[in-house]
Task: inverse folding
C-alpha cells in the first residue's frame, strides 16, 4: 500500500471565477409534497416549512431561536412538487443524515423497515460498513435515495478536511 | 415539543454527485466554482464551503446519468453583481471547463440566479442567497392558503 498523500486543504475561492460564500442548498422533486414532508418530519426527524405553495424547505432540527444550534450555519434541501419526476434518481445521487451511533443506524433500519409501506418507501437496504462508516440506504416514493449513516469522529467531514488530501488530487 | 420521529439525526450531512474525470472535475470545482475540495479516497472527493455538511463526488466509469435541473446544488454569492459576474465567467470559460449548458440569469423575489450544467451532467445554481433568506422562511412558517 502506498503512503497517503498529505496535502493541506487549501481554500479554493481566492482566485476562482465564482466566489461563493456557501454551498447552501440541494434540490429535488416530489409528486406529493405532503408525503415528502411527512417522511422528512416523522421518519427522518428533520424540520420542514412550506414558504409557498409547492415548495418545501428542510433542515436539521435545533436551529430555532433558543435551541442548541441557533445561529449556526445549516444546509437546506428544497423540494418542489411536480406532476411527474422527469429524471428518476439513483443511489449514487442521494441525501444523507448522520446519527449518533452504530446502534442508532440499526434502530433506524428496524423502525423504517417496519413502516416501509406506511411511508410509501421502495427498497430499504441492510446496514453495512463501507470506508469506515456504517450506513444503509432507502428510496422514497419519488426515486429519491436517502442514507442513514454513522461515522466515527475521525471520519466526520470536518475531521477529514483537517487532514486534507489523502490521495493525489491529480491521479485519475 | 417536537414530536418523536423514527430517526433522530445530528446533521443533514450530505448530498452526492458523480464524476468520471476526477482531476478535471476538481479543476472545475475549485478554479471555476470556488468550492473547497479534498480527496480522502481514490474514488471520492468531498466538496464543502463552510459548515459541517459536504457533497460527496463519487467517481464512476463511463458517462454519468443525465441529471435534470430540478436536482441541483446551490451556491450562494454575496451580491446580484456577483451572479452576473459568474454568468459572464461561465460564458467566457465554458469550453475550458467543459460546461455543457448555461441558462440565462433570472430574478425572482429579489433573488438573482442562473443555472449551469457541468461536464458530469450535474446542475449548479449560483444565486445571491444568504442564510438569512432561509432563516426568515423558517421563522415565518408555512404559507397561508
Result:
Amino acid at each position: 500500500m502506498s503512503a497517503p498523500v498529505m496535502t493541506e486543504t487549501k481554500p479554493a475561492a481566492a482566485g476562482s471565477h465564482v466566489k461563493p460564500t456557501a454551498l447552501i442548498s440541494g434540490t429535488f422533486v416530489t409528486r406529493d409534497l405532503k408525503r415528502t414532508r411527512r417522511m422528512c418530519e416523522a421518519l427522518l426527524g428533520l424540520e420542514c416549512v412550506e414558504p409557498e405553495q409547492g415548495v418545501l424547505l428542510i433542515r436539521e432540527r435545533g436551529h430555532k431561536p433558543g435551541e442548541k444550534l441557533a445561529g449556526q450555519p445549516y444546509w437546506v434541501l428544497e423540494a418542489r412538487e411536480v406532476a411527474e419526476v422527469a429524471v428518476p434518481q439513483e443511489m449514487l445521487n442521494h441525501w444523507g443524515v448522520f446519527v449518533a451511533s452504530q446502534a442508532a443506524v440499526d434502530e433506524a433500519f428496524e423502525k423504517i423497515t417496519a413502516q416501509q409501506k406506511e411511508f410509501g418507501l421502495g427498497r430499504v437496504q441492510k446496514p453495512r460498513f463501507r470506508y469506515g462508516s456504517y450506513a444503509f440506504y432507502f428510496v422514497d416514493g419519488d426515486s429519491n435515495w436517502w442514507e442513514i449513516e454513522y461515522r466515527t469522529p475521525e471520519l466526520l467531514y470536518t475531521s477529514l478536511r483537517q487532514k486534507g488530501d489523502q490521495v493525489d488530487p491529480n491521479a485519475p | 415539543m417536537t414530536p418523536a420521529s423514527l430517526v433522530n439525526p445530528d446533521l443533514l450531512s450530505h448530498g452526492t454527485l458523480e464524476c468520471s474525470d476526477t482531476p478535471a472535475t476538481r479543476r472545475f470545482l475549485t478554479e471555476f466554482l470556488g468550492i473547497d475540495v479534498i480527496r480522502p479516497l481514490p474514488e471520492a472527493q468531498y466538496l464543502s464551503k463552510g459548515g459541517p455538511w459536504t457533497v460527496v463526488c463519487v467517481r464512476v466509469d463511463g458517462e454519468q446519468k443525465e441529471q435534470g435541473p430540478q436536482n441541483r446544488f446551490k451556491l450562494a454569492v454575496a451580491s446580484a453583481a456577483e451572479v452576473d459576474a459568474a454568468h459572464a465567467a461561465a460564458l467566457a470559460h465554458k469550453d475550458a471547463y467543459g460546461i455543457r449548458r448555461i441558462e440565462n440569469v433570472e430574478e425572482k423575489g429579489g433573488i438573482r440566479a442562473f443555472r449551469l450544467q457541468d461536464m458530469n451532467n450535474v446542475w449548479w445554481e449560483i444565486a445571491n442567497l444568504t442564510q438569512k433568506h432561509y432563516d426568515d422562511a423558517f421563522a415565518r412558517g408555512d404559507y397561508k392558503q
In short: The helical segments of chain B are 22-32, 80-92, 131-140. DSSP finds three helices and nine strands in chain B.
